[in-house]
Amino acid sequence: MNVNARVLSNRLAQQCSLKRIVTFSTKPTQQAAAVAVPQQKDAANSAPVRKPIVPAHYRFVYPEFLPDPKVEWRNTVREKLERLDMLDRRRQIELPEFYVGSILAVTSSDPHAAGKISRFVGICIHRERCGLRARFILRNVIDHQGIEVVYELYDPTIQKVEVLRLEKRVDDSLFYLRDALPEFSTFDEQMEPETLEEGTPVPINDIKVVLRPRPWLERWERQNLLGVANIDQYIKDKHRKSAEKVQKPWEKYDMMKHYRATIPEEEQKEIFAEVHTELHTLELQRKRNKRKRSFVKPKQLA
Amino acid sequence: MNQAEVSKLISQLRITMRPNKRHLKNSEGPEGRLLKLRKTVTALVKHERIELFYNRADEARGYAELLISNAIRYGDRHKATMELADYWLLEKQLVHKLFKVLVPRYENFSSSYTRMLKAPRDYPGIYYKKSVLEFRGNPFPALVPDYTQNRNLLHNVLLDEARKEFRREQLAKMANKFAAETAAPPALATQENDAGN
Amino acid sequence: MLRTVICDLARLRLSGSASPAAVLITQVREKGHLSRPRLRNPYWFIRQQRTRTDDLVTGENRTFIKEVVHDTYGVPALIKGTQTYEQKQLIKTTEAPTDAEPWTPAVRRCGLIARKIGQYPLWLKNGERVRTTLLQVVDNHVIKYIPPEEYRPTQRPNVHHLNKYGCVLVGAECTNPALLTKEYCGLFRDSGVMPKKNLARFIVSPQAALAAGTPLNVGHFRVGEFVDVRGKTVDHGFQGVVKRHGFKGMPASHGVTKTHRRAGNIGGGGEKGRVWPGTKMPGHMGNRWRIIKGLRIWRINTKYNVMWVQGSAVPGSTNGLVYIYDTILPLRKPKDAPPFPTLYDNADANEPDDIWYDQVHSFKEESISYKPE
């Protein structure tokens, strides 16, 4: 896509090279040619180019492998040991890819449950913390009663994590489901897992949730939520004004603030290069196991 | 322990960064702080070398570095980067300078894009520390003379001599070792002869 | 002025003692005892860092200095997760002394210098989650042992303990000697250890004496034992009563004015009509030496020299220095002999890196499940 654009602009630039008024872009005139040509070569040879070893989506799939960006709390040895422990745990249990908005079923051993095992199905409304502390919140409505369970991802009492429906929502966390009508957070416990075809991007569910009337647990009107349908219905002008007052539109331009909240790309590469091979083999193993399972079943029937 | 934000990908700064932002007093709050800082960044891009108070320079430096590294990473066809440049550079012809002059200049740099030096403060005057903030590779003459090659300073002369002696000793040691190795068998033989006699 | 007067008087008195008949003797109440220093700092409390100046050394000579350092102390190396030097000149004491006396519960062993490198949870086999702090033992070497007869502590101990304990000087984290003063580097000359950034002294029984140059590792402590950890707490500066002592403050509204985070009453009237000593009030918070006692060691990693101790309340900030001792709590003292005087590195490759306490769930094991009744 980018290459095409560059090539096009290159041509355009060549056409209007006489005029030398390049208002739209300067980079492509000389450099796009330099960039575009090697890429064609790469397509022909394909041997000398090394793809980036770590897939770019890893930071979304395994966000807990990135440490807390707070500088005072960082220590390379601790982070390394933590990563090793996480990998050890991942070798024991399949912790699949999931996002806020995905529907999960978590089976965990519980000393107080009948049969010592409990299974909870719900929508993931929040993911937080990093390393071995990584945790997520599942929400469901059971017998007209909203229930939320906090699970720690690396807790050894968790026996199985299934993703019943893999999807994302438009917001980063779905705490507003607590104030929404119960049907938006009601999920069938006997739900069958829906399979996505391999290679398809994770679908984004842009469903708009309908909120109950006030009082609410939080001031949702201040949070610029995209997944809520009827927020305007319940707020008055004074709410609107106060919501406007607390907006921080300049934070978009505060690059240092973003920088302090992220792990820089070079460090991310280093971290994921360390765990990539292990995670990749685990992924492959999982896929193989899945295929085996789906293959074995009909045999037993026959 | 909070999760790192993953939606954005930023290249690493090549300067040492403070873990937290400095509190630059501003009556307009955090927005006013940015409005003030962007004047500094604009001036830096315009003049390439500016003299100002240390704290403001240090804060502005990170923004200038990130602006350039973003420009290098995404180029001028990236909407978000263009918005950033539009916000941070008050004089719009400087946006052209950023993409046409600074980006080519720093594309293959391995060090930081800016340099900060402590400046003397005028006495008697305001107490605040002062500094000079400049782009690397600017067209002005260097502020600090390059002393690194000054061999005639006394300690350099002494160190030179010490180095020569160190090398000589090393050579002598090696030679001795070699001589001992080569001389060892005959010595042994003579001893044996002595014993035989 | 005053001193000269005193000197004159003293001279008078001296001469008086020489010839008592000649001079009138006046009694002198000496004031010298007031200014006499009570604490004498140990000899290793000397200036550590050289003044950093722009030396304007040529690049050639700079590499030469580095070469000399590497020639004497070995090349930089990453040993057990810490950046240090190879230290080939070190007097290697890898074997235990043959005439070592056996351990008894009354002896005091040496401690370790460590860095607090962070915190994360571990799980027990019963599914319980414990918060742990990771302490990394950073490149510790014994610098010197001072026997009880020669050791002069800063404060004279009780008469009972006089000359009972010796002192082991331990250093942590090698550093470039070109940055240090000559006197400070001189402390290390006899031990053969490279100059260290941090020094600490540990009071030990003479049976637990260690030879100079002995490396100290986490193996000094065992999994399941209890330790005391000493560190300097995080400096919070001058803080109010809500943060410093956890007072509740007062309501935000309902007619409350100007007293939202204030302490309120600090004393009664009548006979107790004064502020009692020890009343909790605003003041400086943190930046004090504190010892947290009786922390269990849950896990040890010998590859990176790290130990996981109970709790997240170890004093000090992350990446700060702490000192680890055997616990003094009587009920948590070890029953059987720990490595004594320390664990000498036998370089056994078969030993696993990670040693887990048997109550802790190792991440390499299967998920925890409870047996149905």
UniProtKB/TrEMBL annotation, chain A:
One of its GO terms (biological process) is translation. It is found in: Mitochondrion. GO terms for cellular component: mitochondrial large ribosomal subunit. Keywords: Mitochondrion, Ribonucleoprotein, Ribosomal protein, Transit peptide. It comes from the Eukaryota. Gene3D superfamilies: 2.30.30.790. It holds the Pfam family Ribosomal_L19. GO terms for molecular function: structural constituent of ribosome. Its main location: mitochondrion. PANTHER family: LARGE RIBOSOMAL SUBUNIT PROTEIN BL19M (PTHR15680:SF9), RIBOSOMAL PROTEIN L19 (PTHR15680). Belongs to the bacterial ribosomal protein bL19 family. This is Large ribosomal subunit protein bL19m. The lineage of its organism: Eukaryota, Metazoa, Ecdysozoa, Arthropoda, Hexapoda. The gene is Dgri\GH18570.
TrEMBL record, chain B:
Pfam families: Ribosomal_L17 (PF01196). One of its GO terms (biological process) is translation. SUPFAM superfamilies: Prokaryotic ribosomal protein L17. Gene3D superfamilies: Ribosomal protein L17. One of its GO terms (molecular function) is structural constituent of ribosome. InterPro entries: Ribosomal_bL17, Ribosomal_bL17_sf. Keywords: Ribonucleoprotein, Ribosomal protein. The keyword Cell membrane does not apply. GO terms for cellular component: mitochondrial large ribosomal subunit. Belongs to the bacterial ribosomal protein bL17 family. This is Large ribosomal subunit protein bL17m. The gene is Dgri\GH15737.
From TrEMBL, chain C:
One of its GO terms (cellular component) is mitochondrial large ribosomal subunit. GO terms for molecular function: structural constituent of ribosome. Keywords: Ribonucleoprotein, Ribosomal protein. Residues 249-279 are annotated as: Disordered. GO terms for biological process: translation. InterPro entries: Ribosomal_uL3 (IPR000597), Ribosomal_uL3_bac/org-type (IPR019927), Transl_B-barrel_sf (IPR009000). PANTHER family: 50S RIBOSOMAL PROTEIN L3, LARGE RIBOSOMAL SUBUNIT PROTEIN UL3M. NCBIfam families: L3_bact. This is Large ribosomal subunit protein uL3m. It comes from Drosophila grimshawi (Hawaiian fruit fly). The lineage of its organism: Eukaryota, Metazoa, Ecdysozoa, Arthropoda, Hexapoda.
